[in-house]
Amino acid sequence: MEKLRILICDGNTEADRASFKKFVGCAPSKQFESLLKNYNSQIRTEIAFPADPGPLMTLPLGAYDGILITGSNSHIYEAQPGNLRQIEFAQKAFASGTPMFGVCWGMQLAVVAAGGEVLPSRVADCSCETPFATGVELTSYGSGHPMHHSRTSGFDVFSFHSDEVTRLPGGAVVTARNRNFIQAVEIKHGRSTFWGVQYHPELSGWDQAGFLRESARSLVEDGSYETLNHVEHAAQAISMFKAGAQISEENLVHFEGVDTNSFEFRPLEILNWLDHLVIPTAKRKFGWGGGWLQK
Questions:
Q1: CA-to-CA distance for 166 and 187, rounded, in angstroms?
Q2: 28 is in which domain, residue-wise?
Q3: What is the DSSP string of 77-130?
Q4: pLDDT tens-place string over residues 102-147
Q5: Which is the catalytic residue, given 145, 161, 189, 200?
Q6: How many domains does one find in the chain?
Q7: Three-class SS state of 154
Q8: Is residue 134 part of a domain?
Q9: 145 is catalytic
Q10: Does residue 8 fall inside a structural domain?
Q11: Is 202 a residue of the active site?
Q12: Catalytic residue among 129, 202, 214, 269
C-alpha cells in the first residue's frame, strides 16, 4: 500500500521555533505533521528548515508527493540570510514539479519566489490581522476551486499576519479575499502548482492563544492591543473557542465581527490539497494507484 511522502518546511528561524515551542508546545512544522498524520496514517512526513544555514538534508524535491510551507515570524521583504535561503528553496520547489502548499508566510514566500511582491500591511486600521480574518469571500474562480471544496462562500477564520501580498506574480489567480487582503491564491509557475492561504485553517483556539502569547509584546507595540494584560485576556478567551462552545458575555469583546455559530474549524484547504492535487499528481507522476485510502 502506497504512502504519500510530504516535505514540511518550517518557515521560522531556530530562535523563533524555540519561542513557538515555549508558548504553543511545538514549532509550526510539528503542528502540521500531527495534522497530516491524524488525517491519514498513510502519510510519511519529513521536516526541513530552509531558513537555517547549511545544506538541507532532503531527497531531491521532485521525489516528494507534496511540499508544505508553514507560517513564520519573519518578513519576506527583509534581506535576511534566512529569507534569501527560503526564496531560493521555493524557486527550486517550483522547478521540481511537486505540488506545493503554503500557509501565511508560506503563501507570501511562494508569491515572492514566483516574481510577486509582499510588503507591510497598508491598511490603516489593520496593521496586524489577528486573531481572526473576518468576511473572507471566495472569488468567482475560488468558488469552483477544489482547494475550497466544502467551504462556504463567506467565512471567518483564524489569522495572524502583518504583511500583505501587494503584487501577484504571473500565473497567479486569487481564490479568496476580504475587504483588506488577498486571502488565498493558486500559482502556476515553473513545473509546479501552488495552493496557499493567508489565514490559518490549521489552528485550534488553543493554538491561536499560544500564537497571541508568543507575539504579545509586538502586538502591544503595533497597537493591536493596549497592554500585555489585554493580550492575555484575549488569549484566555480564544483558548476555549471550539465548535459548539458558548462565548461568555464578558468574552464577546474578543470576538467582535466574528460569526461564532458558523465558524469553520476544519483545515479544509490543506486536506483538499492532499485529495485534489497531491494524490492525482502522484498517480500521474509515479504511476501508482489504488493503495491510497482517502478519508
A1: 15
A2: 4-119+161-202+266-286
A3: TS--HHHHHHHHHHHHHHHHT--EEEETHHHHHHHHHTT-EEEE---TT-SSB-
A4: 999 999 999 999 999 999 998 877 778 999 999 999 999 999 999 9
A5: 200
A6: 1
A7: strand
A8: no
A9: no
A10: yes
A11: yes
A12: 202
